[in-house]
Amino acid sequence: MRVGRPGAGIALASLAVALVALVALGCDDCFGRGTGEAPPGAERRVDTAAVVVAAGADAGSATFILDDGTTLRIVEPTPLDDACAAPDAVGCVLLADTFGDAVIWYALRDPDPLEPTRRLALPGPADMRDSGDTAVLGNGWLVALATPTLRTCDEPSPSLRAFIDRWGVARSEARLDLETDEIVEVVCRPDAG
Description:
It is built from two helices and 13 strands. It is mainly beta. It has two domains: 102 residues, no CATH class; 70 residues, CATH 2.40.50. The strands form two sheets. Strands 1, 8, 9, 10, 11, 12 and 13 form a seven-stranded mixed sheet that branches. A six-stranded mixed sheet has the order 4-3-2-6-7-5. The relative contact order is 0.15.
């Protein structure tokens, strides 16, 4: 983990001790776990994605330290879409829409079992926006697309648009690179749906 300042290990240890104390006291819902249902018309843009290495909570806020050295402080009632099994969020992949230091919305996902700190499988793309720079995933999230985006399938697609039209959301998945925060690959699943 790159934190970049002396004493960071002490801060991480303190955060970990506080988290263990909160969990021991029965505070496994301190992070405002919810469904993340977006109000009609709300966008869910992902501009930050990394693995949680430490987390803590106090009245009205949660703090997450990510494996890229970023620290996010999230205040209630920030919407959360939680699909991670870890009750303390450590080891989960945190995805967030940020505006400066403020977190507008965030999600927690179980890490990829084969590449837990490098890639994350997400729903397949339903569409593209911003002249092909942004994927609209099957769950409505907006995520940056790498140029080029690798298309992996036994049946070649001449373009990403052709891939989306052919395979759709139900028969594909997108793979997010946790270092670049971009969709770097889409994979067809011919046996699905």
